[in-house]
Amino acid sequence: MDEFASIRHWTSGRQGVEWQRERGVVLGIGDDAALINPAAPISGVGSPYEYIMAMDTMVETVHFNAVTMSYEDIGYKALAANVSDIAAMGGIPLQALISVSVPRNLGPEPMRRLYDGLYTCAERYGVAIIGGDTTSSPQHLVIAVTVTGAVEAGKGLRRSGAKPGDAVILTGPVGKSAAGLHFLLAQQERGIAALAGERAESLVLAHRRPSPSVRAGRLLLTQGTCHSLNDVSDGLASEAWEIAEASGLLVSLREQQLPRSGSMAAYAGAAGIDPLEWMLYGGEDYVLLGTMESSDAIAAQAAFHAEGLPFYIIGETLAGKPGVEMIRTTNKGELRMPLMKRGYNHFE
After folding, report:
1. What domains are defined for the chain?
2. Of 71, 272, 312, the residue nearest 179 (C-alpha)
């Protein structure tokens, strides 16, 4: 099967012309390039709006392997990671370009399954797949995704907007994806049986099929008092450092207010691991970390709960040298501990 036959096999019949047109697509897959109408009205986004663009790459043996992911999972997660970047700006995802580098010994069906997962994610978040590129790879599978989105002009949420005295907020628990990855690897290496069943499944699902927080990002934007926002892709501590450095202040997290998943904590205990390690440094949870007016945080929490969405107030920001600390309450008072600037880093 040649390149163009492969592309047809992976993509044909997936998304209708009218469905794509509602997302601003004039011409999708099938020509030298796609055509987008930059003035098309976008449902849920007011005019005028600005485009958001994000790109992520997943590489076999670095981001996934046969133990941790099915081909459907690979496709789903590759797109979800980009959708999360759009959510972190308070935007709505629109279109995606997909580039794959495929080992010659990988047949057409595994890639068809990868695109099954990719289109499942696209349907869930309303993303039109409009093109990309296909090449051979000498050894490993590589998938790179570029996603566009839109947000009201001048309203996009950034890392750099935090102000001293803000409340630090989080839109979901952290550490589940890292726990799921640990379980998958430990199960393979040591035949671990701890936490089998539904609890383990929830951790594995968190790793393989993350849920980008698009609705949460839109709620924070419309709330009007969210000053900064970041998605938790590289770990809570790493993302807090990004906000601290971009905004020029100290981010202070309170340990007792950090949301702790019951299944994650139970598995951490069984595995002999401090759950804070996964919570602070695990990453790939794709919830949102941000800051907002402290006087509005309780109202925002109520608005989230009314939508059936989690919302946690986990600390505050302080004037001072950029950094991140965690406050632990003990019987002797509050203990302030600096958090290292650590998370997943491809070059370390």
Report:
1. 3-152 (3.30.1330.10), 159-338 (3.90.650.10)
2. 272
Tokens encoding 89: 């700006």
Neighbours of 339 (CB within 10 A): 22
Name which of 345, 220, 342, 241 is nearest 288 in CA terms: 220
Instruction: Read off the pLDDT of residues 92-111 as tens digits, 9 standing for 90 and up.
Output: 999 999 999 999 888 889 99
Look at residue 89 and give its three-state secondary structure.
coil
Residues 6 or more apart whose Cβ sits within 8 Å of residue 5: none
What lies within 8 Å, CB to CB, of 39 at 6+ separation is: none
- Predicted TM-score (pTM) of this structure: 0.91
d(CA 209, CA 86): 17
Two tokens, residue 7? 């592309």
Indicate the SS3 state at residue 320: coil
| Helix ranges (DSSP H) in the chain | 3-11, 17-21, 71-87, 108-125, 176-190, 198-208, 214-223, 236-247, 262-271, 275-281, 297-306
